[in-house]
Batch of 4 targets.
Target 1
Amino acid sequence: MRFSSLSQWLQWQENLHFTEIDPGLDRVGEVWQRMGGQTKLPFKTVTVAGTNGKGSSVAITASILLAAGYRTATYTSPHLLRYNERMAINGQPCDDDAICAAFERIDQAREDVSLTYFEFATLAAADLFCRQDVDIAILEVGMGGRLDAVNLFDTDVALITPIGLDHTTWLGDNREAIGREKAGIIRAATPVVCSEVSPPHTVLDYASRLNSPCFVSGKDFNYETDSSHWSWRNADTSYESLPLPALMGTYQLQNAAAVLQVCDLLSQQGLHIDQNAVETGLKQVKLCGRFQVVPGAITRILDVTHNQQGADNLRELLAQTSGQGKTYAILAMLKDKDSQAVAEALVNVIDFWYLAGLDGIRGLSAEALSETLAPIVGDKKVGCYTHVAEAYHAAMAAAATDDRILIFGSFHTVEAAMKLMPELAQPISEAS
């Protein structure tokens, strides 16, 4: 074996390919073929693409399928505390030894073919899931859809979550262009579900050209809610008095409603998913970093939001859950994210901003972030810190009982904060 530990494998992969992002399916497809793999995996597959709500939708789907008794795998990215989070079976991350063995098989098969960090992960997940005899896998697209490594594999049901402006350098600078890239996960004559009431026309047009049944929220399935329950229905199926999803935010109903349509389609394809499984899955779903509330004298809220659409959702949640104290924000972002749009969305619900820098070539310094935010939120409401840890300690020192601190802007931001909270910092393997 080339390396004996997961951390060694990952460090090597980070510099193996000439660029971190290199969209396209030729290289990853050639290696998978050499490994004896097929694009049609030997289990049911749901592929999830979109800008916001992907992780939540994967988590809700997996929770319901697990409650229905199916051996359920998930592939997600990026991770928070451990790389192993990316590939899980029945909610349990795959262990270091299994992942290293998968990496070795990929390395042996690829020979002189160069792969990115994400492509290694995608092939490892597929390899592990095939060997673990899963019933169904929910695969989250990393970026885009059409040229994303996950799209190497055919899907039984495609799910496209809300589409906003993100990764514009790669995907296009408007919703229609981005929608066309996301629509690439659709397969001919295979159903696709859209979480949005008004998805980009490019998504609908592409599905139509492929003769793929398209199920759109508000048209082909609907939901209603009161303070404690909600109902869902489509042309053939209805659920009444459902428990609200265990994930915070009214927008999670949008995600859950689309997931129920996915489950209904899976039922039509032979899976048995009854209302009890739906209710149990909704009540038991868990997902770190999505308006994750850490209680205490000073409430801390962790959220991986990093674009305008997500910030709009955050604003609504902060307004709905406001108390008597102040709301502070710790914000650290990557260079390719629209920090101006994020600040404009949240300027009226944040009392003071603790800006921090992120390491790495994609990381944005606190000073650069301040140049964008200060004109929007005011010079006197901004403080700059080199790292998230410094910003966190400063915010905790300034906050009083009943205040709250929102920590957001990137998976990296949330990860750094989680490591400072003993109640959340799980034992970290050397692959973290």
Target 2
Amino acid sequence: MNAPAQDRPVVTRFAPSPTGFLHIGGARTALFNWLYARGRGGRFLLRIEDTDRARSTPEATAAILSGLTWLGLDWDGEAISQFERADRHVEVAHQMLASGHAYKCFATQEEIEAFREAARAEGRSTLFQSPWRDADPASHPDAPYVVRLKAPRDGETVIEDAVQGRVVFRNDQLDDMVCLRSDGTPTYMLAVVVDDHDMGITHVIRGDDHLNNAARQTQVYQAMGWDVPVFAHIPLIHGEDGKKLSKRHGALGVEDYQRMGYPAPAIRNYLARLGWSHGDDEFFTDDQAKAWFDLGGIGKAPARLDLKKLDHLTALHFSRMDDAAVLHELEAFLAATGMPALTSTQREGVLKAMPQLKDKARGFGQILERAHFVLTERPIRPDQKAAKFLDDVSRGILRELTPHLQNASWERERLETIVNEQATARGIGLGKIAQPMRAALAGRTVSPSVFDMMIVLGREETLARLAEAAAGLDAQSE
């Protein structure tokens, strides 16, 4: 027998069913497993639980792999298909048959239902007790059968859960679960145990909706003489209204959050804080999360989504992220949302402007809006709000300003001095010049500082845009 799970190198796993997108709750489960393994020099494995052939699709599997990749949750080795391991699951069921820990049950569905109806009528437990549990094999008919686990009838099955604490199940409240169906295919409950054992999983970190399964799965471990892993059943995520997440809450899948414009580091940080805490720390890096994450920090109460907190964390992560990293994720956002890719010229301009674009931004949509001045081309077509700042008087101001900029040294401080001097000479506030300049350079009323835009655009492009606006070539607004 191997050493107890807690004494072996950590191996965790994420085991989603490929029946749809990667749910935000599943993403958090994957993150917790990833953090726990990576923070201890262990391994994080991926298993696709695709035994439900009617509902499992290659598209869903691809969506799960894509979601994990975008989140930055790398796994060790190849993803394992549970369905492809069916022969191994069957082998274990037959081993339990041979050792007397399982038995063939020939009861039909009609007989089982009749048993339950009689039990209900008599006020007894409807937990099915098979008459074949201790039958002499010589009495077995030549008929279809299922293989059931011969679970203990007396005593208790105890789960020492790392999150929920000590959870006790009375064995007389647990039935003999089916391990092999009558068509010879293994059940999910058996397959999970066999796969976790064969993969060397030491810690099973999953949603608390699996807590009841842990009791029956523990009985399979015990029947096979295998070490039981450390279980950690984490509470589910609820919506802001305190109810279980559903379609009414809107964004449910990881790809939804990507399309909403959130960067992966902020999502990782936010999901880590959903149900787990490290003191009062809200913002932290991946390295800090790996070092700090432990199962004892997970609460027992369901966590609630709070997009305002996610917005706040997003702004913090943008401020700490390298400009090139933000650009890389921005391009992934464009691809995910079906928007045109950046040209090489646009990439260069966006990267140059990134310090201003990402400042206090709460998503890539906001960054793109601020980047409009880089992404657009002459002639600049101002939107309706911006066009109001390009009346005849404002055009006259731009015409007088342009000659003063033509030979100026193209540095922010010098450009600010020139514009301020022109405002003073006219007896007007800086805004009376800045707004027409913003409309001319960006075609928007909201943009980075006009001086930041001038530096990014350069002398030639800036003067060309100002000249076209002054001449009225932008008169046709968007």
Target 3
Amino acid sequence: MVERVESPAQDAPACPTLPGDDEDSLGCLMATASRGHRVLLAALLAEIDLYPGQDRVLNALWAHGPQFQNKLAAKLGIDMSTMTKSLQRLERSGLVSRSPYPANRRLSIVSTTPKGDALQPRLRRVEEEIHRRLARGLTPEEVKTLCALLAVVRDNTCREALHAPGAGD
């Protein structure tokens, strides 16, 4: 059994509980861990003038090169309106550029700029810090096991989301 590491800011239950609810239930733990990750990510990304989600856009562009905007959104699993808003912010910051595709000007190709590419080492340090904080109190083997288990949960929830009413509409 892994010892629970208490946070100094744990005055209230992590999840609101109703009769029969358990704050150590899988759903509550997932929700709380996800929320904590999001808050930590937002704080660390703010130090390098990024918003959550923009890191994923930049990482996809660095890994796969220039992309059609719609393909990038699909690759990241986000809708086009969210992608457009994220790209507008990244463009205003000078980190990416969008240009029309010559064969079909309705399509945009997204690329990183030199300023965006220069941000890569700083983003890597943020990602390393997030990993360090998330893994605090865990052995490397426990981290590996946790990642494998979360991959199963991710696959289960993504499969469910694909078959949910309204999915793909």
Target 4
Amino acid sequence: MNSGGSTIEIPFNAIFSTMALFISYLVAYRLAERNDIDKSSAGILSLSCFLILTPFSVDAHGAAVIPMEWIGSKGLFVAMLGAIVWTETFTLFLRRNIVIKMPEGVPPAVQKSFAALIPALIILSMALAIRVFFAATSYNTIHEFIYSVIAMPVRHFGTSYFGAILTVLSISSLWSVGINSGSMINGILRPFWMDNQAENLAATHAGLMPPHVVTEQFYDMIWMGGVRGDLVVGAGNAHFCP
């Protein structure tokens, strides 16, 4: 039976530990909306490709077991980048009319379903080919490749003390010329902040000292450099109070 504390943490852990799944679907959904193509098909296709690329094992009962680390904050880069690539590829197929054409009189919903078959088959095959390719390398998965080669170096620099100062300097400088830099910088660095937050939570649960200082909550509580009293800064966003 769960203790009170563990019960309270269930909603947070359920969402935080699977956020890459939501991101994979929603990024594709919104990009498809901008591209004026079928949003649900793009979202489902993106999520399917993400799951194909995500490593899993088979337990003694024959059920697939997916490591939680890759569908949580560590999988955000593959989820976001993949959603963009798959949706843009899907859009390219649809705009070039590389689809199954249905006769007139067929309901639009049925037309959309059949139109997605050829692009979806090719895109899913691409995702499978990527998985097979990386399985033959020392990285084993594209998750490990992107996390080790791209994400970790950027995370190390971006969440260092120097990186924190540079983040504040970038946001303040861009705001000075009227650019909503909070949203832009947040979109780049939030996956790294969330990864740090996840490791801090794990360390806290283990009774250890949290290893990271720079997280999104760090910017919520501390804004380095100082601001005027009428400027409210939180979570990397700034606005003037009337």
